[in-house]
Design goal:
Length: 284
């Protein structure tokens, strides 16, 4: 596997000045119309032309990867104007931080439920040689591997855990993002790419089961709310009976306690306002 290595280079302005001086000297020797000066002048102009092909400009957050007739030479990372090896091929590789937004993928979770999921991947190139020579079009490689890793991670967990226990895509987004980042880093290391962060941007049930799952969630919410209401109602009834007995307000036998508990539970648990019947006669 190719690794990035720094290439030696010269200051471009000094190199350009040197090339100009050689070219001027060569032109002057050629103008003398003498055999030896003519030959030296032609050689000097040829050298100036050859050196001229070695001038290169490196933009900020960019690397120039140099190859010489198919042989990898090295990379220039520092921005500026430089004189490098003549006749070398110089390819620019961006080192800037970039985002990749995946398309919405349809995946089956661990329970077999079809879900829609998408992610955004923040990455940058840290090894320009690997990015250019180890994979074919590293940007396409990042896109394909990102979608593959997302499918793999999504298929390992359930979309949701109704009981609130266990690991789920919806309930553990931070852990899912961390696992996805680690999975991507392993896959993209060969391309010289560093994954800075990955986050889920879309997570939902697929359209064909979305309505059924919504009804299930609504039913679970209603059941959970009813459980809390019943627990509270039982507690209130217990408190009312204990308070009546401790204050000696009224003596209740088992039958009247049962009737009182029934009335209180109906009044508290019912989803509509209770309409009591007032008894104006004797309690007995």
């Amino acid at each position: 596997m190719l690794k990035e290595k720094e290439l030696s280079y010269l200051n471009g302005f000094a190199g350009l000045l040197f090339i100009v001086l050689i070219g001027v000297a060569g032109g002057y020797l050629i103008s003398l119309q003498s055999t030896l000066p003519l030959i030296v002048g032609i050689i000097a102009c040829a050298i100036a032309f050859i050196l001229l092909t070695g001038l290169t400009i490196v933009q900020p957050n960019q690397a120039r990867v140099l190859t010489f007739f198919g042989r990898y030479l090295g990379v220039i990372r520092k921005s500026g104007f430089y004189l490098s090896i003549p006749f070398s091929t110089r390819k620019a590789v961006s080192l800037r931080v970039r985002n990749f937004n995946s398309a919405k993928l349809k995946v089956n979770d661990v329970n077999g439920n079809p879900i829609e999921i998408a992610t955004v991947v923040v990455f940058s190139v840290v090894d320009s040689a690997a990015a250019l020579f180890e994979v074919d079009e590293y940007e396409t490689f990042v896109e394909i591997q990102s979608e593959t890793a997302l499918r793999h991670v999504a298929s390992k967990y359930a979309y949701d855990q109704p009981d609130g226990t266990g690991f789920s895509l919806r309930g553990n987004t931070e852990e899912i993002a961390l696992e996805l980042t680690e999975e991507l880093q392993k896959r993209l290391e060969i391309a010289g790419v560093k994954v800075i962060e990955s986050r889920l941007t879309h997570l939902a049930y697929s359209t064909e089961i979305a309505s059924a799952m919504l009804q299930r969630q609504q039913a679970e919410a209603i059941i959970a709310a009813r459980e809390k209401i019943v627990d509270g109602a039982v507690t209130m009834v217990q408190m009312a009976i204990e308070r009546l007995q401790s204050d000696n307000v009224v003596e209740l036998d088992d039958e009247r306690k049962a009737a009182m508990i029934n009335n209180l539970l109906v009044a508290v648990v019912a989803d509509r306002s209770a309409q009591p019947v007032i008894n104006t006669s004797s309690l007995y």
